[in-house]
Please model this.
Amino acid sequence: MKEYLDHRPLEVEKVGNDLFIIRKDIKEVEHEADPEAGTDAYTSWEAESEIITGTELTLRKQAEAEERQSLAEDAILELAGLIGGE
Model:
């Protein structure tokens, strides 16, 4: 869901007993002053957000860590092949 905030949001925020909001694509939005409307310039933020449980958050973090590990191992094997091929 799209979320509009008046402050820079956290990527992960606990909002209840085992409930979290996770946010991605956080964007800062500058608004110009509008003298006719009587408003000052201000900054707001937009983000894509989702409410998940603590268990789901843990599973996602584990999957991200496993993906990073796999990418690191692939990079090491590729480098080893380059070095060994000389």
Notes: The CA atoms of residues 6 and 44 lie 5 Å apart. DSSP finds one helix and four strands in the chain. The mean pLDDT is 92. Residues 54-84 form the longest helix (31 residues).
